[in-house]
Design goal:
The chain contains 5 helices and 7 strands, in the order H-H-E-E-E-E-H-E-E-H-H-E. By secondary structure, it is α+β, with helices and mostly antiparallel strands. The radius of gyration is 15 Å and the shape is globular.
Length: 168
C-alpha cells in the first residue's frame, strides 16, 4: 500500500503539534478521540466555554443537535474552522465508511447550537457546502488538520461532507 500524500500546508505546526496530529489521524488515535475524548469534551468544552478540551491545541467546539429519530438533544465535540462568522464542521467520523450520526441529525433538523472558544456560542442554521464553496472549505480544513485527508482515504469512496453553520 502506498503512503497517502499530504497536501502542502500553509498553517505552521510545531513538532509537538505534528506528533499529536499523527496520533489523532492513526486508527488508534481516531478510536481514542471518538470513544474516550469525545465523552470528556461533551462536558469539558461547555463547562469552560471552549477554553479546554482534549483536542491537544486544536479548536474544539460542541455541536448540539436534535436526534433525527429520537428527537432528543445530542452533543458532539468536533474540530472546527471559521469562515468569517460561519463555523465549518467536517463529517469525517475518523474515515468511517458511514456518515456520523450528527450529520444525519443536522440534515433532519438544521437548527443547532454550537459552543466554542472565543465567544463562538449561539444558535446556527446548518447546511451542507457544495461546489466551489465545498472545495475551498475542504482545502482550508485539511490545511488546519491534515488528518482529514487521511480519513478521506479510508472512507471506501464516501465523500466526507462539509457542514457550514450560519448564525441565526
Amino acid at each position: 500500500m502506498l503512503p497517502l500524500l499530504m497536501p502542502d500546508r500553509h498553517r505552521q505546526v510545531n513538532a509537538i503539534h505534528r506528533q499529536a496530529e499523527n496520533f489523532a489521524r492513526s486508527k488508534v488515535g481516531s478510536w481514542f478521540f471518538i470513544n474516550v475524548a469525545n465523552p470528556v469534551d461533551k462536558l469539558l468544552v461547555p463547562l469552560t466555554r471552549g477554553r479546554l478540551s482534549m483536542g491537544f491545541g486544536q479548536q474544539v467546539g460542541v455541536l448540539e443537535t436534535v436526534g433525527a429519530k429520537s428527537g432528543q438533544r445530542r452533543r458532539i465535540p468536533l474540530l472546527f474552522i471559521r469562515d468569517g462568522n460561519h463555523v465549518v464542521l467536517i463529517a469525517s467520523k475518523g474515515g468511517s465508511t458511514r456518515h456520523p450520526a450528527w450529520y444525519h441529525n443536522v440534515k433532519a433538523n438544521p437548527q443547532v447550537r454550537f459552543v466554542g472558544p472565543g465567544g463562538i456560542t449561539g444558535d446556527y442554521l446548518a447546511r451542507e457546502a457544495e461546489g466551489d464553496e465545498r472545495s475551498r472549505l475542504w482545502s482550508e480544513a485539511v490545511d488546519y488538520y491534515d488528518g482529514y485527508a487521511t480519513y478521506q482515504g479510508r472512507t471506501d469512496g464516501r465523500r466526507i461532507p462539509v457542514i457550514v453553520l450560519e448564525p441565526v
